UniProtKB/TrEMBL annotation:
Residues 110-145, 146-181, 194-229 form the EF-hand domain. One of its GO terms (cellular component) is voltage-gated potassium channel complex. InterPro entries: EF-hand-dom_pair, EF_Hand_1_Ca_BS, EF_hand_dom, Recoverin. May be involved in the calcium-dependent regulation of rhodopsin phosphorylation. Binds three calcium ions. GO terms for biological process: regulation of potassium ion transmembrane transport. Belongs to the recoverin family. Coiled coil: none annotated. One of its GO terms (molecular function) is calcium ion binding. This is Kv channel-interacting protein 2 isoform X2.
Amino acid sequence: MFSSMSQSQEYRGFKQLMPGDEPGGLYILMLVSLFPLYYWCFTDESTEDEFEISFVCHRPDDLHILQEETEFSRKELQFLYRAFKNECPSGVVTEDVFKLIYSQFFPQGDSSIYAHYLFEAFDTNRNGCLSFKEFVAGLSLILRGSIYDRLNWAFNFYDLDKDGFITREEMMKIMKSIYALMGKYVYPSIHDETPSEHVENFFQKMDRNHDGLITVEEFMESCQKDANIMRSMRLFDSVF
């Protein structure tokens, strides 16, 4: 399913992107980091036309239900499921699959921690595996959701313990996972203080009441006032 040329081109572009001093840079990087999932889903060379599900162990919901619950058309769901079943014939995606995807796109770094955080953002029922329904629900929010949907998804991604707040510790973990993902291609070169600097810049912009916690309201308000973040939200508007 993976296109080696696409991987190479996207990796060369990605390795030049690292968070700047503004929170918008971190948000843009988070969005761009979803491109491996984009290629995983949308580079299927299969010529099948039917939504075949008879041989998998975990059958997805009826197609019309998924159409109602997501922003994807029937044809798009058929395409997505072909990609899904080709890589995961059992009908579920595990965290190991996410780690494999990211290790192939970022061979010079350690992508395992970032892939773990991303998997947890998709695994809404916390059972350690993704059904087709969970997977397309997450993709629908990211690719076709409203501004509110996309920002809310991003907030939940950063909120690692899902307690409704983003802490400095959580942002530090995210930052370190991003630098580990990029490996030796990080520019500028990483120093011990670099992740901390990014976290402090993030909190200076987002933490409106300076209590050391970022709420979803603070996050939403700050992001919607950031022109770079608003532009970045159109990255996936023309996937199909």
